Amino acid sequence: MDSGVERDWTALAGDIKRWATELGFDAAVIGDADLGDAAERNLEAWLAAGYHGEMDYMASHGSKRARPKELVPGVRRIISVRMNYRPPAARDSEAVLADGTAAFISRYALGRDYHKVLRNRLQKLADRIVAAAGQFAYRAFVDSAPVMEVEAAARAGLGWRGKHTLLLNREHGSFFFLGELFTDLPLPIDPPLPQEHCGRCRKCLDVCPTGAIVAPYQVDARRCVSYLTIELKGSIPEDLRPLIGNRVYGCDDCQLFCPWNRFAVDSREADFQVRNGLDDASLANLFAWSEADFQSRLAGTAIYRIGYERWLRNIAVGLGNAPSSPAIIAALASRRDDASPLVREHVAWALQRHAAG
Fold first, then answer.
1. SS3 for 249-318, per residue?
2. pLDDT tens across 301-349, in order?
3. Domain spans of the chain?
4. Is 214 helix (H, G, I), strand (E, B) or coil?
5. Do 152 and 31 touch, CB atoms closer than 8 A?
6. Which residues contact 246 (CB under 8 A, 6 or more apart)?
7. Model-level pTM?
8. Record: fold of 280-357
9. Active site amino acids
């Protein structure tokens, strides 16, 4: 960026926020690239406890996660954006969870892959800034690099970190995505909220099906259903399988029962509308999909990233937890001799559950 050009940075910051909403984001804030020592200490303690499980990338990036200036040399500001994702037409989540024959899929994954949606919009936002202010250094992130996005957003007043570790907003709950645009522009900084608003509430800790929220603001990923069904590549620990219930991709419980999500706002983004009836699909029907079905129906979604094998693994666990019936047992038996040892193992476990019951 040409530092010799005089600019009204306050006006540009206002324009950036306005452009962000015009591009489909629901809010934008600007924060300092210095996240402070506390963020790094908290990360180090979390990693030392082993709470990251198999997510080795969390540790391999080291201090870069807490020190944006090591990740992107020259960065001065972080523009954090929020985009609501809850699809308005989706079947009620609690009703799906209560239906043992249905497959619960985290609400964020019912539509198009958010990585693509937000990254495309962030690039358009950067293009607008370039058109107005000239060339500048920037880099966009959408849950794809060692960025402490909740910390960055909270420091700029977009919300506060809830006890479940997600960002919370008084007017919008937590059903939203975050994205970041790292920049070298000397924009004015937005202040953090004067206080957090969780108080003595511990609803998210109490409702977590696997007890993964081990203390306020601490999540042991190794027990988290989202980690087990998305990040974990091998066998799901047997002692945790019964606790997963019918959650076959992710888990929303800590959000569903959070009092602040009474104020959550549905998405206005067409890309996040429900695809393939995934908000109200039966476990047995999904288990019958061929690999070609999986690829054709889930291409372009976040679910596609886990692959067909883990998809079947997860559904086998859901079927093992379903109310026993001839249809459920038949669905499991159809893959008793599946080509994948991982799938066969989870099918055998599920069939034993029904035999024991």
1. ECCCHHHHCCHHHHHCCCCCCHHHCCCCCCCCEEHHHHHCCCHHHHHHHHCCCCHHHHHHHHHHHHHHHH
2. 999 999 999 999 999 999 999 999 999 999 999 999 999 999 999 999 9
3. 9-104+111-183, 280-357
4. strand
5. yes
6. 96, 97, 99, 100, 101, 102, 103, 104, 283, 318, 321, 322
7. 0.92
8. Leucine-rich Repeat Variant (1.25.10)
9. 143
